[in-house]
Each structure stands twice: as C-alpha cells, then as structure tokens.
Specification:
The chain is an alpha+beta fold. About 35% of the residues lie in helices and about 20% in strands.
Length: about 160
C-alpha cells in the first residue's frame, strides 16, 4: 500500500505568494544551482538536518550532490518522496528546498520540512515560504496529519519518536 492515493497527482509549479519565487520538483539537471545553494548554507543546514539525515556533509562533492538529486528525481517520479526546489522566476538560482516525505516516525501520515539559503533567512521570502508551506500541504496534499519537522515538533523530539512501521 502506498503512502499516497493511487490517483494523486503531485503539484509541478507552486508560486510563493508575494514573491517572484516558485516551487517545482527538483531534478538532476539542477545540480549546478543546488550545489552552491547547499554548500553556501552548509553550516546552518547541518545544524538543522545533520542529526537526522547526516546532510549536508562537510565534504559533499558536486558529484555526490548530482547523485542525490538523481535519487530525488527518481523518488518523485515513483511518488516515494518529494523534494521541491525554491527557485527564482527565471530558474537561475535555487534558494531553498521543501521536502514532502512519507512518515519515518509514528504519529503522522506525511512529514514536511524546508529551508532557505542563508541570504534569505529572516527576510520576506522566508516568511512567505513559511506561510505558504502549511497552506499548500493542506490544500494540495492528501494528508490528515502532516507533521512539520523543526516547526511543530523539534527535530530532537521527532528523532525520539518510535519509527513508523
């Protein structure tokens, strides 16, 4: 049994209200944009995602990022999990990501997390994304109990929960 209904169609373009930014599924071809975004914000991202996902590794190479994005692209096509890139209007820069995943821990039917590059932290774009994500998940995704990691539950609390079966 899938974690999503068989007839679910994932969104492919999601405007971020009040900005020129949008979300779309990430692709292997985005590596040239993703790698500098991730590595340019690596220390802060490691503080957020490191304990749970061991990502992004301090020595992550461009090739490792490309392989990771290819994995994400394959998982999206198979509806196993979703990684959405936050892009500027002409898609010349990745400015963050949103992850929509099956539950790893008990108590939810979908787990959602997101980040923006260091330059956007605390600014209008981050606030707009923070407002959008829960509304978007409620409107366009089939979850009854989504969990927002690092938002409605601290990462350490989430890691302490029993693993989902």
């Amino acid at each position: 049994m899938s974690w999503l209904p068989d007839d679910f169609v994932h969104p492919v373009h999601v405007p971020v209200p009040g900005t020129t930014l949008h979300l779309r599924p990430i692709r292997e071809a985005d590596t040239a944009l993703d790698y500098p975004a991730v590595m340019g914000s690596r220390e802060r991202l490691w503080e957020i995602f490191g304990p749970a996902w061991a990502w992004p590794n301090e020595k992550m190479t461009y090739e490792e990022d490309r392989i990771d994005l290819l994995r994400h692209e394959i998982e999206i096509a198979a509806h196993q999990s979703f990684n959405y890139a936050l892009l500027n209007a002409d898609e010349t820069a990745i400015l963050g990501c949103v992850y929509v995943d099956p539950p790893e821990r008990t108590g939810s039917d979908g787990e959602v997390s997101w980040w923006v590059v260091d330059d956007l932290v605390g600014g209008e774009a981050e606030r707009a994304l923070d407002a959008l994500v829960p509304q978007w998940i409620a409107a366009d995704w089939p979850f009854r109990q989504p969990r927002y990691l690092g938002r409605d539950i601290a990462w350490q609390e989430w890691l302490a929960l029993p693993r989902a079966s």
